[in-house]
What we know:
Layout: E1 2-6, E2 14-17, E3 28-36, H1 39-45, E4 59-60, E5 64-72, E6 84-87, H2 97-100, E7 115-116, E8 119-120, E9 127-130, E10 136-138, H3 145-148, H4 156-164, E11 174-178, H5 184-194, E12 198-203, H6 206-214, E13 219-222, H7 227-234, E14 240-245, H8 250-259, E15 260-268, E16 288-291, H9 297-308, E17 316-319, H10 324-332, E18 339-342
Parallel strand pairs: 7-8, 11-12, 11-14, 12-13, 14-15, 15-16, 17-18
Antiparallel strand pairs: 1-2, 1-4, 3-5, 3-9, 3-18, 5-6, 6-10
Helix pairs in contact: 4-5, 7-8
Amino acid sequence: xxxxxxxxxxxxxxxVEIDEPVAGPGQVVIRVGGAGxxxxxxxxxxxxxxxxxxxxxxxTLGHENAGWVAEVGQGVTSVSLGQPVAVYGAWGCGRCARxxxxxxxxxxxxxxxxxxxxxxxxxxxxxxxxxxxxYLLALPDGxxxxxxxxxxDAGLTxxxxxxxxxxxxxxxxxxxxxxxxxxxxxAIQILKATSxxxxxxxxxxxxxxxxxxxxxxxxxxxxxxGVAGQVREATRGxxxxxxLDCVxxxxxxxxxxxxxxxxxxxxxxxxxxxxxxFGYLTVPREVSLQNVYWGSRTELGEVLSLASRGLxxxxxxxxxxxxxxxxxxxxxxxxxxxxxxxxxSSA
Length: 347
């Protein structure tokens, strides 16, 4: 079968013919119905080619995946042939304390592979091997694999970020989302679905800000000089109780910190590689700085439930597997709203 693979670090992925996977004991093969594109995929294809790869090569891209069960290995009873499923993408050791709680994203064993599409073959192919059936969640009625795929990361990661700050998101609070892309457009919806807070959205693109308004943002601000001042004006001088930086550059992190209210949370969701100075006079009083990496398997179940009830609607652009490289190039140029999803199989 044909697969879009990273074969050389910091080089554009390429289509390669590989064998179809076969399910061993405890394993499952899915026929891929949707594979989401993420900016982190671009980071693997760009940058300094002399930097040693942190993941073993080669591997098939695609860490946001959903499809239909095509083959089950010996001992698998939790899923059945033809069943539509979403793939939980953070694959842990299955033995440590974090994995035992379903928090495989914070596995405490140092594994060389991070999951399907991140060191192990992902979903940019017709079929994908899932090494443990516990990583599969049945799709609720009314949710297709193409709709579910982006929820496994672009939905799950901001959901986890919002959930950990929910005590600060009461009806008097303001939340701020920086970057209304694949992560940010989901973050706005999650905030509206799970909290009573008002939402400020920030982006460089007018069309992204228009999307934010359509998703329920109460205030939109065009990125640039003076964002923090406009945020404080909207919040009557207080600042945002919770800031979700869905970009993660030096500039956006600086904006996040200067826009935060005392006792607030600033959470880094995007992976653009930026940083921000931390010191007694550089961060507002008792502002907590944190980053997140995906969420738990249980939280993915919650995200799928919200989506099946119509409370989360990923804005997606569908591409065939043949168009996957075109889609990545469009993502890199900032031409896509929401999330791009490759659909190797549609039914």
